[in-house]
Each structure stands twice: as C-alpha cells, then as structure tokens.
From TrEMBL, chains A, B:
One of its GO terms (biological process) is threonine biosynthetic process. Pathway: Amino-acid biosynthesis; L-methionine biosynthesis via de novo pathway; L-homoserine from L-aspartate: step 3/3; Amino-acid biosynthesis; L-threonine biosynthesis; L-threonine from L-aspartate: step 3/5. NADP(+) binds at A10, G11, L12, G13, T14, V15, G16, G17. The lineage of its organism: Bacteria, Pseudomonadati, Pseudomonadota, Alphaproteobacteria, Sphingomonadales. L-homoserine binds at E192. The keyword Oxidoreductase applies. One of its GO terms (molecular function) is homoserine dehydrogenase activity. NADPH binds at K107. This is Homoserine dehydrogenase. It comes from Sphingosinicella soli. Residues 351-423 form the ACT domain.
Length: 430, 430
C-alpha cells in the first residue's frame, strides 16, 4: 500500500461531519479503491465545542483555519466553509499557492471565482475539484467533464435545487399554496429559515453557471444567468399546466444559440415526455444533450450529509489515484469568453396566466393585444375566481419570441385590464 | 498544444465508423478538451472495400490487424472487432504487452478476460478502458469506478439491453405477442437476424458481470450470472403486471447478500415507483445504490453509432489527459474472489403465471400446493382462456424464498394440473 493522502478539513457543518463519517465507515474500501489510504490530518471550524455526532478528538484541531494552507503534512485542503468570498476563497487561494490540491463543495465560490482559481491551480500544477458543488451526490461534473467529453454539447439543463422541487411537487400533489408549503417545509427542516438562496433561484444559478462552462467550454459567467425563483408560481398554474400535459419545475437551463449563451433559472412547463417531469420531491436531475451521445439523464440526491460527502470523497479518490486534471473541461486558457444572448430573443412557446376584471369585452381586448404583438394563441383556459376578484385566464402561445410576449404584457398592463402581476413561463418542448 | 495522441483503429463496423466521424466532426473541441489532438494513424478491418460512409483514404490501411500492436507510431489501440476470444483478445494482449493503451467496446471480451487483461495492463503500466462496453453512451463505468467510488455499493441493476426493452415496451403499448414484436423489430433493424445474444439475456449478462465487479470490488465472474431472457414473457404477463402496478422489464441485477454475490439477468416486475419502470423503448438505464449517496439513476442511449463512439472517444480523452488508472475500480490485485449465492436463497415476492385445466378443484389444488411449500398468496387473478385450452392464473406471493416457489412449481408439474410451462418472475420491491 502506498503512502496515505493527507487531508485537512476546513469547515465542520453537515458536509464536513459527513466526510469524517464516510472516511471512517468506508475506510478500507476507499484505500483499496484509491490504492492508498485517505487520512484526515487536521481539522478546523468556527465552533470547536459543537457536538457533530462523530469523534473529532483523533484529529489535530487548528483554530486558525488559514494556517491549513501552509502545513507541510497536508496534501489536500478540503474547503467546506461556504460563501463566495471571505475566508473560503482566501484559504483556497493560499492552499493553491502552496501547491496543495483543493476539494470544495462551494458552488458560490466556484461560480464567482472558478476561472481564476482553475488558472491558479494549473500554474501551481495542482488539482481543484468541486464535484459536490453541483447536484450533490450525482457525479455530474465528472459526467460532463469526462463522460460526455467527446460531444459538442449545446444544451444542459436540470433540476438543481431540491428545496424548490420539493415545494413544487407538494403543491402539485396537494393543490396547496406556495406560502403554505414553504412554511411546512421550513417546519420540517427541508427549507432554510431564510430560504432566499433556494426559492429565488440563486443556488440553482450558481450551479447552472458551472455546468454551462463545463458543457460549452466557455468562461464561467454567473452574472449573465437570468434568475427568477418559484415565489410567483400559484396553485392554479400547476393545475392549468397539468391540464395541458405539463408539470411545473424550477429548471436551470443553459444553451448555445448561434454564437451566444443563454442561461436561465426559472419555473417552466415541462412536458410529461421529458424526464425532468418525473423528478419529484427533493431529488436533483440533469439532462445533457450531446451531438453524438444524444440525451443523457442523471438523477439522485442533490443535498444532505451523505450524498454531498460522497461527492467530496470521490474527488479525493481521484486525487489519490492521480487521475485529476484541469478543473474545467479543458485547460483554463482554452475556455472562451462567450457573450450572453438577449433574453427576448428566446423563441419557443409560452404559458401566460393573467387575472383580469370580470367584464364584458376583456377577453376580446386581451386576444387583440396578443395578436397585435404577433403572439398566436394555441389554447386558452378561463376559469375560476382569482383572489384579486377577477377571473384567471391561462394562455398557451404558439412559437414566438419572448420579446413579443413581453410587449403584449406591457400593452395589457398599460390598458389597465390586467389585475395583479401576470405570470409568464417558458414551455420546454424537448 | 502538446503532441497528438496517436491511435490505431481495429474494426470498422458501426462503432468504428462512428469513431472516425466523431473525431472528424468534433476535432477542434476534443483537442481543446484533451489538451492535445487525437489522431488516427492506422486502420484495419476485414473488408477494405465496404463503403462506410466516411473517407478512410486519409489513413494507412493495414491488412494484418495484429500488426497494429507492434507499431512505434501508435499510442492507443482501439479494439472494435468484437467477440470474446479470437483476434480481438489476441490483439489486446499483444498491444498491452507492447506497452500500448487499449480502448475497447467489447463487453464479451471484458466479461471473460477482464481480470487477466487488467492485470497485464497494470504490469505494463498502461491503460485498459472499456466505457463503451456497458450501456453505450451512458458513462456508467466512470460513474461507478469514480463518481460513486466513496460508497459501499450493495446493489447495482439496470436495463442493459435496448432490444429487449424495445420489445417489452412495444408489447406493453400494443398488447402484442413477443414473436410478432420481435419479427417487426427485425424488419426495422432494431433486432439482429439472429437475436439470441440480445433476447436470451447474454449481452446483458456480459454487461452485468462488468458492473458487478466495479461496484463490489470483486473479481469479474460472468459464469455465475443466472441468465434467462424474454422469450417466455407473454402479453398476458404484461397485462397482469400492469393491473398489479408493475411493468415487466429485462433487468440485470447484481447484489451482495451476506458474503455472497447474486447476479441475475431476467424479466422482472418493476414497481412504477422505481425509475426503471419509466424507461421505455431502446433506452438503457442503470441504478446504483451507495451507502452514502443513496440511489443514483442514469439513463441514455445504450447502443448505436453515435452513443457508442461517444463512449470510446471519452476513454481516449481520459488517456490523452493522463487521467486513466487501473481498469476496474481498484488495482486488480485488490479485487476479491467473492462466491456466488444460491439462486434459491433469494428472498422476495414472486409473480407466477400458470395455465391450468378448466376443471373443478384445480384452483383448490394449486393453492394447497403453494401453502404446503410455505408460499403465501398476496393476490390471484384468474381470467381468460390460455392458448393451451386451459385458463390463465396469475399469482403474486408474499415474501418467501425462490426455492419454496420452485418446490411448489415442481409439485404442480408432478400432479399434472399445470398445462405448458409456468412463468416465474421476481418482483423488485425497491
């Protein structure tokens, strides 16, 4: 057996505790697979006294986390502190500068600083790995970086946030309102006390920006991800979608159109024939479409102690085996800065739900407005009483541009016939 | 840009032609990803004159395939000849002996000789890769060898043969008989003129033996795979299964029970809650269950020119990147010879379909026979006229051992009350 791979763990929250447990429980198996043992040498976290359900007294405790980067007895720094900036990125920068490999689960840091850190790791001749940053236990970084590496990939999309998918599928099954399901999810611990990062789509946007770079060979571009969450999804939208043969999912989607990249995180209507429609509860899933392989679909648990630790340790095993190369799908100097497409240019079908005053002629006015904007109607459902006192109208368009639909919405708003905020969702026709 | 990775292609059938097309079409992208170009240096196949729809005149044609192993201008031999023995394995052995890396799509060869070849490659300090051998374009070898490497995996199973899944889902949708769907599939080119390897489960068994070794760290043991195919599946079985909340799928399943490994390829009843139930047409899919990651599900195209070429070239990119290690999930000296479990020891629920004479007292006799064997009945459907002139009875048991059910079947046969061949299928309760 070869010499052990020596690691330092920075951060001992849910994931850090899971990594310790995994390396304990599967110790012998991992040593056989990696060809050498993986050993924790030092640990560091904010609060030494917290009970993490695992014996940490075996490891050297370090109060100054940043000092982990300097230790001669450490081969890999595992960064599980979190946060896009601050101590996490400082530690990673100095660990790489010291020639140490880095494994991280930090999607925000990679989304913001991935290109810089990948370049630094290449210059230092060391590894930067982040399998746990996207879709938890699903080995999707590896699947795109390596498994689908032979393909031109023009589209990658998925369900990248388990909290949102849990909420949407609960709404679907029980006809419940968003706010009620969110409150229940918070009570059960499935949603954070401050759920903003999840339900407003920011967490999914971090992950999508990483997937897009891997898939397209583009420089990571988090700032261009158009992000909205699921707060505006009403029970009536889900019911209308079901009637039309769709399910509502928060989809992170990146695609190349012409010489531009579109990146969006938003609630969409997904046809039942698409595998994402069948992903329920807190599962994550990713679809990648390659020009030779066709459609690949991956599903698994996207968060939690076990799945995330599984991904962190998979990275460690790659490093122990000597099978780790550039952080992205190619050396960072080959990544191209590809510009972002205009949101309005997106062509496709749309779902538009409006609440309108229950008055004669309103429907005629709406349909005329859509016609004038060049939006042709595929189907229209008018039913039920909206909370605002008006009636709900759900419209599915034929293929058109997003700018045409938005133009129609602005015109409706201007005429005063629309009550409250219209809800616009993309329909995925693949 | 670094020096090219120089490959020799042995075998120019569907997959070989696909590899040439892929390396042409995605040439620049692959060079960026791999950090160096991948170039075909020499090609060889049985029939030089056949039109393969791609210009081969650019490459040096070699009549003596075995000479590819000796060439100084070749880094990797890509073996796409096929067959478990004969010229394929001879070429691979000599290529490895010459220190060349080998990439192959040959599931039969790996299932029969994988351990020997992996050991030889390790001793020669070179790579042996075979992503295309299992589930075509799905990067399942990589997902288990690397992505799930941190986990103890106790069960891996999947739909490993697209032809069988196509036939079963056609039967499901149209209520058609096996023989009719097979004939139609042959007419359309979805099934071979001699479909034995596919429909009798041998192709899936090769793939399963490879997955089991990767998942369990066991020496590959193709001889112990209990293999039956789908010839005995009747339209009535599929209808009964649907009524009971199941779909019939040809499942390759390997699991560790105690200190034994069970490997089976056979038609099963899959509950609608299991993702395999939703896999339709010629798609392949694999589920791996890890002790930390939980259930991972992968789906994609399992055969054909594009998906298989995608997997072959992914292996080449790994080699070009210098990211290839031992062929299995661990150095071959660490693989353990784990014995095969007794088929009869399998505990679970069973589906049993019988054709019996339409006579008073037969049902009483059957149920008594089952009771005497210790098999308790969960549900029973008696309906319709069997072709044999009797009536069909479909029984679902409570959990019991396979040996108890087989004992009951033998007793029924002995009593002469059963007409024709009873159909026994495992029910997957996960």
């Amino acid at each position: 057996m070869n010499s052990p791979l020596r690691i330092a763990l920075a951060g001992l929250g849910t994931v850090g505790g899971g990594v310790v447990k995994l390396l304990d429980e599967n110790r012998d198996l991992i040593a056989r697979r990696a060809g050498r043992p993986i050993e924790i040498v030092a640990i560091s976290a904010r609060d030494r006294s917290r009970d993490r359900g695992v014996d940490l007294s075996r490891f050297e405790w370090v109060d100054d986390t940043s000092s982990l980067a300097e230790r001669d007895d450490v081969d890999v720094v595992v960064e599980l502190i979190g946060g896009s900036d601050g101590p996490a990125v400082a530690l990673v920068r100095s660990a790489i500068a010291s020639g140490k490999a880095v494994v991280t689960a930090n999607k925000a840091m990679i989304a913001h600083h991935g290109l810089e850190l990948a370049g630094a790791a290449e210059r230092a001749g060391t590894a930067l790995k982040y399998e746990a940053a996207v879709a938890g236990g699903i080995p999707i970084i590896k699947a795109i970086r390596e498994g689908a590496a032979a393909n031109r990939i023009d589209r990658v999309y998925g369900i990248l946030n388990g909290t949102c998918n849990y909420i949407l599928t609960e709404m679907e099954e029980n006809g419940a309102a968003f706010a009620d399901v969110l409150a229940e999810a918070q009570r059960l611990g499935y949603a954070e006390a401050d759920p903003t990062f999840d339900i407003d789509g920011i967490d999914a946007a971090h992950k999508l920006a990483i997937l897009a770079s891997l898939a397209f060979g583009s420089e990571i571009d988090f700032a261009s991800v158009l992000t909205s969450g699921i707060r505006a999804v009403a029970a009536t939208d889900i019911a209308h979608a079901a009637e039309l043969g769709f399910r509502v999912r928060l989809v992170g989607l990146a695609e190349v159109v012409g010489d531009r990249i579109h990146q969006r995180v938003h609630a969409c209507l997904v046809p039942l024939t698409n595998p994402l429609a069948k992903v329920s509860g807190s599962l994550n899933a990713v679809v990648a479409e390659g020009n030779f392989v066709g459609r690949l679909f991956f599903e698994g648990r996207g968060a939690g102690e076990g799945p995330t630790a599984s991904a962190v340790v998979a990275d460690l095993i790659d490093i122990a085996r000597g099978e780790a190369g550039p952080a992205f799908s190619m050396p960072s100097e080959h990544l191209e800065p590809i510009g972002a497409g205009e949101a309005g240019d997106r062509r496709g079908r749309y779902y538009l739900r409006l609440s309108v005053a229950d008055e004669t002629g309103v429907l005629a006015e709406l349909t005329a407005t859509l016609r004038d904007a060049g939006v042709s109607i595929d189907s229209l459902i008018q039913r039920g009483q909206a909370e605002s006192g008006g009636v709900f109208i759900a419209i599915v368009s034929h293929e058109t541009s997003e700018s045409a639909v938005r133009e129609a919405i602005e015109a409706m708003r201007a005429s005063g016939s629309v009550l409250g905020e219209p809800m616009l969702m993309h329909i995925l026709d693949f």
